[in-house]
From TrEMBL:
PROSITE patterns, per database record: GNAT
Domain annotation N-acetyltransferase: ranges: 1-155
Keywords on record: Acyltransferase, Transferase
Species per Swiss-Prot/TrEMBL record: Paenibacillus woosongensis
Keyword Acyltransferase recorded: yes
Keyword ATP-binding in record: no
Pfam families named in the record: Acetyltransf_9
UniProt-listed PANTHER family: ACETYLTRANSFERASE
CDD domains from the UniProt entry: NAT_SF
Protein name as annotated: GNAT family acetyltransferase
Source species, domain of life: Bacteria
Length: 291
């Protein structure tokens, strides 16, 4: 293999950072520049890259976070943005970077995991990752009373609204004690700025942010961001319309007083564990903290 220069954690190196952003945009259609400019890139996001000159040619990124499993915190590393420039593929660069990550964090985590697309499902088992089944949770909804006051759509282009989102992202409670994440504000801000920028609502009385979409009789709730405990019934009273018949949660809800259904979901999750740690069954990783 031709010798390329290995480097990591170079967010303050402008040429490399911009090259990294360009490779991510060309590979996955990801837009990192605005996320970086708005302060989303924290010390918990670490790219491991091979470079040629000032050009990033291959990358494996590390996201350092915590998993909440039945109320207990576990150290976790989520792998993301695994990519190689087309001109440099089939040279073992991704394999070499994965091995560097494994060596760097050996004995420093309880769970290491990633979400793979269909084209690389055979790649990660070589490093001790195992495919894990997820579940998607939903509930039938019967409209009753509604309260449409005290709810405001947030605009990420407005500085005041963005500050509100940042505050909640930094101070939030995990979305679920049964299975949730912590220390993931950087990933959440990417989703707020790039994915769900038109779907973020502030609920004044509940002092919470809900990220959701409604289409016909169905509502998808992607996240509920709160600093203090909330009742899901109070949230749904605000955000569910009279025509809503089904609600899908894109995380593992542990709210009291609701009847949930679940279906198996194959999202390409691969997990590597240490010691006696077992990844929980019948859960859904929060969508807004998937790297």
């Amino acid at each position: 293999m031709q010798e390329f220069i290995f480097t990591k954690d170079y967010k303050h190196n402008e040429p490399l950072r911009k090259s990294f952003f360009e490779l991510a945009a060309n590979t996955f259609d990801l837009s990192f520049e605005n996320w970086y400019q708005k302060g989303g890139w924290s010390e918990r996001y670490i790219p491991f890259s091979f470079v040629e000159g000032e050009k990033v040619i291959a990358n494996v990124s590390v996201n350092i976070l915590e998993l909440i499993i039945n109320g207990e915190k576990k150290k976790a590393i989520q792998i993301g943005t695994v990519m190689t420039h087309p001109e440099y593929r089939s040279r073992g660069l991704s394999t070499s970077l994965m091995n560097k990550v494994l060596m760097e964090y050996e004995n420093k985590y309880d769970f290491m995991y990633l979400f793979a697309n269909d084209t690389v499902l055979d790649f990660y088992p070589k490093f001790g990752f195992k495919a894990v089944e997820e579940h998607q949770f939903s509930m039938d909804f019967t409209p009753s009373q509604f309260e449409y006051t005290g709810i405001r759509k947030l605009n990420v282009s407005q500085a005041d609204d963005l500050r509100v989102i940042y505050k909640f992202a930094a101070e939030r409670l995990p979305v679920s004690q049964r299975f949730g994440t912590d220390c993931t504000q950087g990933i959440l801000m990417y989703y707020c700025l790039n994915v769900f920028c038109n779907d973020i609502y502030y609920l004044e009385n509940e002092n919470a942010i809900a990220i959701y979409k409604k289409e016909n009789n169905h509502m998808d709730i992607f996240d509920i961001i709160n600093i203090k405990e909330v009742k899901i019934q109070d949230i749904l009273t605000k955000i569910a319309g009279r025509d809503t018949e089904k609600i899908t949660f894109h995380f593992t809800p542990d709210y009291k007083g609701i009847d949930l259904k679940s279906d198996i979901s194959h999202g390409g999750l691969f997990v590597r564990t240490t010691g006696e740690n077992l990844y929980p069954v019948h859960v859904k990783h929060p969508i807004t903290s998937i790297a």
